Amino acid sequence: MNWKLPNQLTVARIALAVLFFVLLGLYQADQPRPGLLIAAFVVFVIAGVTDFLDGYLARKMKLVSAFGRIADPFVDKVLVVGAFAMLAGSNFMCPRSAGTGGLESTLPYWLTGGMLSIVQSWMVVAVLAREFVVSAIRGYSESCGRKFPATYPGKIKMIVQLVAIGTVLVQMAVVRDATWAVCLKIGMIWLAVIVTILSGLAYVNKARKLLVSEIT
Amino acid sequence: MLKKAIVTGLGTGYLPVAQGTWGSAAVAGIFLLTAILTGCDLLITTAVMAVLAAAASVGCVALGRFAEQTFGKKDPEKCTADEWAGQAVALLLAPISPGESHGKTLLVVSIAFLAFRVFDVVKPPPARLLERLPHGWGVLADDLTAGAYALISVQLLRLLL
C-alpha cells in the first residue's frame, strides 16, 4: 500500500470511526453522560477534517492512489451509516420512567420512533439502501467503461448527513431540554433522510439510460 | 515588532530552553485563568481556546515566510505560534463542569498540556509528513495534528472522570 500522507489520513479516519462507535455504544439514555457525546462529537469532527484533507492533499500533491480511491468513500460510508445505526440503537431510546423521557417522549411516535436521537430503524435501512444502489450503479457503470462521478445531490446529501449527526450529538449533550434544540434535531434528521432518499433517486434517474439499455 | 510578537507567541519564544513548552504553558495558563474566572464554563473556555487556535493558526500561516527569513530556518525554535495553536486545540471542549474544584480543573489542564507536549515531540503519523508542507503550513500542521491527538486523549478522560 502507498503509505503517503493522504493514505495515512484515511487510515487514521478508520481508527477514529472505531473510537466514535465505541463512545456512542457506551452512552445510555437512562443514565445520560453528556461527556461521552461531547467526546464522540470531537472525534466525529476530527474524522470529518481528515475526510476533507485526504482527498484535497492527494489531488494537490498528486498522490492519488488506488487505495485512496477505494478506502476514502468506503470509510465515509462506514462513518455515516455506522453513526445512523448506532444512534438507532436501544441505548438511545427515550427512558420509560415518568418525567425522564424529555420532550421527545411527548411527541407523536411516527416523528421520533420513541428515540432520543430521533433516528429510527427504517431510516438506517433507507440510508443503507441508498448507498447500496449508488455503489451498484457506479460499479456496473465503471465496469462498462463509463465514469460515474459524485454529483452535487450526493455531496449535499453527505453534508446534510454530517450536520444532522453533529446536531444530534451536540443537542443531546449540551442543550438537552431546550425546545428549539429538540425541534432543530428532529428537523435535521428528517431532512438528512429525505435528502438521502432524493439523492438516491437522482442517481437512479441519471443512470436511467444505462439501466434501460441493458434491459432491452 | 507586531509580527515578531505574533510568531514568537507574545514573546514566549524568547524564553530560555524548550520554547515550545513555554508556548504551550502560556495557553494552558490562559485556559486555567478563564476557567477560574468563569466558574468552569465550558462554552466560554471553548470559545477562548477556539479564538486562540484560529488566531495562532492564521498568524503561523500568514507569517511563515517572515519567520523563516527572520530566524534563518523553517520552524525555528523561537516560533511558538504553532504550539499556541496546537495546545489550544487540545483544550477545546475540555472535560470541566461548572462548580467543580480547581484541583480537578488543574488535573485536566495538566493532562492536556502533557499529552500535547508528548504528541508534539513524538509526532505520530501523519504529523511528521505534514511538516513537509510549505512554509507556515508545514510549521503549523504537525502541531495541529499533535493537538488533535491530545484533544482525543483528553476527551477519553470523560470515561474516567
Radius of gyration of chain A: 19 Å
Q: Low-confidence parts of chain A, pLDDT < 50 over ≥5 residues?
A: none
What is the CATH C level class of chain A, in words?
Mainly Alpha
Radius of gyration of chain B: 15 Å
Write the H/E string of chain B, N to C: HHHHHHHH
Supply the CATH superfamily name of chain A: CDP-alcohol phosphotransferase transmembrane (TM) domain
Strand fraction of chain A:
under 5%
The multimeric state of the shown protein is: heterodimer
Secondary-structure element series of chain A: HHHHHHHH
Query: What's the average pLDDT of chain B?
Result: 88
> What's the total helix number of chain B?
8
Q: What's the number of structural domains of chain B?
A: 1
Shape of chain A: globular
- Overall number of structural domains of chain A: 1
Helix share, percent of chain A: over 70%
Structure summary, number of beta strands of chain B:
0
User: What global shape of chain B is seen?
Assistant: globular
What does this structure look like?
The complex is a heterodimer of chains A (216) and B (161). Chain A is an all-alpha fold. Chain A has helices at residues 5-26, 34-60, 66-87, 109-112, 121-143, 152-173, 179-206, 208-215. In chain A, α1 (5-26) packs parallel to α3. The N and C termini of chain A lie far apart (41 Å). By secondary structure, chain B is mainly α. Chain B is built from eight helices and no strands. The longest helix of chain B has 22 residues, at 135-156. The mean pLDDT of chain B is 88. Classes of the chains: A mainly alpha (216), B mainly alpha (161). The interface between A and B is medium-sized, with 19 and 16 residues.
Gist?
The complex is a heterodimer of chains A (216) and B (161). Chain A is mainly alpha-helical and 216 residues long. Chain A contains 8 helices and no strands.
Blueprint of the fold:
The complex is a heterodimer of chains A (216) and B (161).
Chain A (H helix, E strand, L loop, with lengths): L4 H22 L7 H27 L5 H22 L21 H4 L8 H23 L8 H22 L5 H28 L1 H8 L1
Chain B lengths: L1 H6 L11 H20 L3 H21 L1 H8 L9 H10 L11 H21 L4 H4 L4 H22 L5
